[in-house]
Design a protein that fits this description.
Length: 139
Amino acid sequence: MAVQTSVLDATNLHARLDDLMANPPAGSANGAWASTLVMSDDIQAFVIVHPPGTPNDTHYHEHDEWWVVLRGEINWHIEGRPEPIRARAGDFVLCPKLHNHHLEPVGSEPSVRVAINTRGEFHRYDRPGCRSEPWRMDA
């Protein structure tokens, strides 16, 4: 198992998005990738690049999760909301713990977001409505 390292840590306190975008992780497929931005004792944060037309799976977390949209547009489908939240660059989105959610990047350019949550949190699928397979968007 590979050791997960983060871009920011006690010895590297600064990073630039353009530098991360210029050097995506090895094995990135279809223009989608994620990089561990912070992995501390308490929190984890990831930079995620997600092209339009590639929704993710429906899942939930046992802790709140929130995001900062840096580029592009994303529709967030969050349990209990009648309509998706349409977030654009500069927006913040919060999904309360125990709420199923998935997202759909939309528009004409890849979306870039930072996902922040509690250290060790992961996608959970053991509730009704969850699915580990990504949703397919209509062409």
